């Protein structure tokens, strides 16, 4: 585990100016009428500026698909039906989250409130009208509808509903039929893996296909590879049932501000995160690589899981303040969902970089994140890899100017599905090259790295990560400030040899 600096040093990493600024902003936005609040302008991402950035052309657009509002409340089950009370677990109105998302440069966000007995009705009758008002008040941020789904037999998941005229009714149908805690009285028959698979198959057959992404997947793990509520078998069975719906898990969970108040990063109290990332992602050759090695299109994201800001006693950053999920898409609901569904995603913390591109090329074409490069027999002698990243040019939300110290190129073989549904390693996955500042060159506002793979004889995938630290591999997290431990990860590019 990393050397713990303790609460005093962790807190001192955030300047008094920043603390006062965000505590004041948050309090003002909660207390004021939304109509009276003048929201600060969102900063367009560097990558968006560099590519022209219009809403009708694809660019890297940062977002957050795991944000809680005051509708993550509590239920009084002494009454029939249960009585809902707002603000028990998360405290901010939906529009407050949207304003803060805009403030921290997000182009899209999603309200994902907890369920409970008859919560489907709360979503339909109370929360959804507030979402519509928030969309009108903060139109610069695309605000998806959905929830933090109480997945049968599993921990929480994002359930993202496509934007359409009947989106509220679609969520109501799925939540009321399948969320394990929605029934009143409680129905134990809902909390089974078979029910989860039934839910995914139902979602897959809908005209408007939702997306399902696992939250804090190994938060209940008690050791490295000692899985808790979520298991490799369940991920495989779910992905088999609905491969275009059940598409990934959070690589970097929320609650990243915990160490600033002496709490475990991410809320991972039984076994820690590594550089802020879940062990399923951070361990080279671990579960994520095992799934990719089967050829699964299984992606990672990064979220805030915002409930209560750390300056008000919570463990959270605002949406976009620390973690971002960047999707290559138009500023359009459908295209952002398409990017999430198809892996046009990279993730980062602390705005260490504001743009990242990974391309893999042969003689007759190339592919980017989420895509597949097909090599003919005569093209196997070389595959060219280009990594481009855009460093932070100004200050991040903590007032820092973080620097990239290293970028790693990671390659694993794709061997197809195996017979062991519990497998959680891919021994073929390796860091094949490490690059420092002397290994990249500047082109405009970007830094460029090039590398060549020789004699590619089998199917594989390529992914990259980078860090502000000098850790060869991300170490188990203690109470160091999250602002001193920044990482970014790409999603993979696949290479298919014919």
Automatic annotation (TrEMBL):
Residues 1-38 form the signal peptide. Keywords: Signal. The keyword Secreted does not apply. Residues 43-63 are annotated as: Disordered. InterPro entries: Pol/histidinol_Pase-like, TAT_signal. SUPFAM superfamilies: PHP domain-like (SSF89550). PROSITE patterns: TAT. It comes from the Bacteria. This is Phosphoesterase. It comes from Streptomyces violaceolatus.
